[in-house]
Amino acid sequence: MLYVFAVIFGFAYGGFAPLTSLTVAELFGLRAHGTILGGTEIFYTIGAAIGPVFAGSIFDATGNYQYAFLTSGLLCVMALIWVSLLKPVTSGNSST
């Protein structure tokens, strides 16, 4: 099972970085692509660092992960709503 998980996770996670860069380029253009992509990655990294500590704190306080998963799900729904409100740049603004 570990090998099956590793292969599936590897392919899924390996596609994350190129899609993130592409999404930033489509939504914000190429003028400040590196700066915007760097900013998104900073927030991603902060969330990846805080998430396990937050979930562990909830487990320590409640004895289960139910509230941690509910909070994570709520944050994902909020992010989906925010991302759906973004509009791509027009082709005239997407270069240099």
Describe this structure in words.
- The chain is mainly alpha-helical and 96 residues long.
- The protein has one domain (2-87).
- Helix content is 78%, strand content 0%.
- The chain contains four helices and no strands.
- Helix 3 (33-62) runs antiparallel to helix 4 (66-84).
- The longest helix is centred in the middle third of the chain and has 30 residues, at 33-62.
- The radius of gyration is 17 Å and the shape is extended.
- The mean pLDDT is 88.
In short:
This protein has 96 residues and is mainly α. It has one domain (2-87). Helices cover 78% and strands 0% of the residues.
**What is the average per-residue confidence, as pLDDT, rounded to a whole number?**
88
How much is the radius of gyration in Å? 17 Å
Annotation field: number of helices: 4
Could you give the order of the helices and strands? HHHH
- Give the terminus-to-terminus CA distance: 47 Å
Percent of residues in helices comes to: over 70%
Uncertain segments are none
Tell me the fraction of residues in β-strands, as a range: under 5%
How many domains is the backbone divided into? 1
- SS-based structural class? mainly alpha
Coarse shape: extended
Report on the biggest sheet. Answer: none
Care to count the β-strands?
Answer: 0
